[in-house]
Design a protein that fits this description.
Homodimer. By secondary structure, the protein is α/β, with parallel strands linked by helices. It contains 8 helices and 9 strands. Bound molecules: adenosine-5'-triphosphate, 7,8-diamino-nonanoic acid and magnesium ion (MG).
């Protein structure tokens, strides 16, 4: 099933911008793409959510979200406080599986990190990935502190028997400091998964046409500079 679940080492790490980069690279490679934000918090009914932001940056994708809650909190907390029905992992998985019958690639973005709760029962994005049997891409921060959160995330994926697709640095600074430079070697070690790319800081503010042209180059470039689509599992499962 061509579903890639996109999580992060936390919130505000660049998951949405990375999702947009993967979507843009897939579109440029001629694939049809759907983007599903499992639960959107912190935006009002008329505001742009993460899936809309991906469409703005990447181009013509099918953009959807299961539910949105006004307060900028974990989805389970935001749903409870709003008196609204929470999102449960099976409905995210069902929606993603349906989109997968109609698209070459489905990108499912969580909210915050892997274990952020969607509902009172403690359902998370990890449960969604398990229900789908889908690989999980981890978006990591660039600098000091990322080794711990990346390893914790990778260990939890392994503990659950989930496949890690790899790690992408969500916001690579123009002038990387010493820990940031060292992390390029250390992140794949602690994640026990490949480093698949780094999205430059400020990429989300690029004009969309520039973003789309550059995106593939930020992700798992091959030696010839083309995008390594295989690394992102842009293919049918056997
Ligand atoms: N590479 C980047 N270029 C430009 N802006 C970025 C980049 N990475 C992150 N940002 C900015 O940092 C903020 C958080 O990024 P983003 O929305 O991608 O976080 P997230 O990990 O998707 O968080 P959430 O848990 O809310 O979904 C946004 O305001 C975004 O514009
Ligand atoms: C509002 C924010 N931007 C995200 N959508 C939700 C992040 C929840 C993080 C919860 C936590 O890990 O403490
Ligand atoms: Mg996001």
């Amino acid at each position: 099933m061509p579903v890639l679940v996109i999580t992060g080492t936390g919130t505000e790490v660049g998951k949405t911008v990375t999702t947009a980069a993967v979507a843009a690279a897939a579109l440029a490679a001629g694939r049809s793409v759907a983007v599903l934000k499992a639960a959107q918090t912190g935006v009002g009914p008329d505001e742009r959510g993460d899936a809309d932001e991906v469409a703005r940056l990447a181009g013509p994708v099918t953009a959807g979200e299961i539910a949105r809650f006004p307060e900028p909190l974990a989805p389970g907390t935001a749903a409870r406080r709003a008196g609204m029905a929470p999102v449960h992992p099976p409905e995210v998985a069902e929606r993603a599986a349906k989109l997968a019958t109609e698209h070459d690639l489905v990108l499912v973005e969580g909210a915050g990190g892997l274990l952020v709760r969607f509902d009172a029962a403690g359902g998370t994005l990890a449960d969604v990935a398990q229900l789908l049997g889908a690989p999980v891409l981890v978006v990591a921060q660039a600098g000091l502190g990322t080794l711990n959160t990346t390893e914790l995330t990778a260990r939890e994926l392994r503990r659950r028997g989930l496949e890690s697709a790899g790690v992408v640095i969500g916001s690579w600074p123009a002038e990387p400091d010493l820990p940031t430079r060292c992390n390029v070697a250390d992140l794949p070690e602690v994640a026990a998964a490949p480093l698949l790319g780094a999205v430059p800081a400020g990429a989300g503010a690029l004009p969309p046409a520039e973003f789309r042209t550059a995106a593939a180059g930020w992700l798992a470039p091959r030696l010839d500079g083309t995008w390594d689509a295989e690394a992102f599992r842009i293919r049918e499962a056997p």
